[in-house]
Amino acid sequence: MTFTALQYWWWPYLFILVAGWLATDVWRYLGVYFGGRAAENSDVIVFIRCVATALVAAVIGNLVVFPSGALADTSLILRIVAMAAGFVAYLLVQRRIVVGIAAAEVVLFAGLLLG
């Protein structure tokens, strides 16, 4: 089956729904199944945590270096400074993600207003 296999109006939506579910939820269920049996400090769980962290870092790096939309109109230096400010705020305020995100947004918006 392909995205354009059927000519019904609902087919692309069903295709996206099923393909999206298969690509993500199956792996989540397997992770819950196998993760519940493994010790938190086991080598496998530590490796999986490292890979997940690396993937998140890669997505953030891609958004900073190759942005799209309105973020593409900002300078690279401003995006890097905002990201660094958010990370420093995250570390200073007992590792609270919301504080890091808010600090990065404040720096980004201030840079846009001043620039």
From TrEMBL:
Domain of life according to the entry: Bacteria
Keyword Kinase among UniProt keywords: no
InterPro entries in the record: Brnchd-chn_aa_trnsp_AzlD
The protein's name: AzlD domain-containing protein
Residues passing through the membrane, by range: 12-34, 46-70, 76-92, 97-114
Organism: Mesorhizobium denitrificans
Assigned keywords, A-Z: Membrane, Transmembrane, Transmembrane helix
Pfam family, one: AzlD
